[in-house]
Amino acid sequence: MRCGDGHKVRAGSGWAKLTYLPYMKASPYYEITGVLNSSQESSQRAIKTFGLSGTAKSFVDIDSWSTNRDCTNHK
Q1: pTM above the 0.85 mark?
Q2: What are the Cα distances from residue 21, in Å, to 6, 16, 55, 59, 63?
Q3: What is the pLDDT of residues 58-69, one digit of tens each?
């Protein structure tokens, strides 16, 4: 994911998990529907760690994420 200024947002590292993630979880304008990571286990761990189990699916490659209608604007 990229924020408005084009910088990559990585919720599991640095300050993004302290700023971006809480804001997006609380905002009525965002719904976190997918977590893309290097392995299925790490995606599922992030979903559990950040309390996204009610909304997010885990992905390990960009192709499966980008074609999933729940995670993109392909309506």
Answers
A1: no
A2: 17, 6, 14, 18, 23
A3: 999 888 888 887
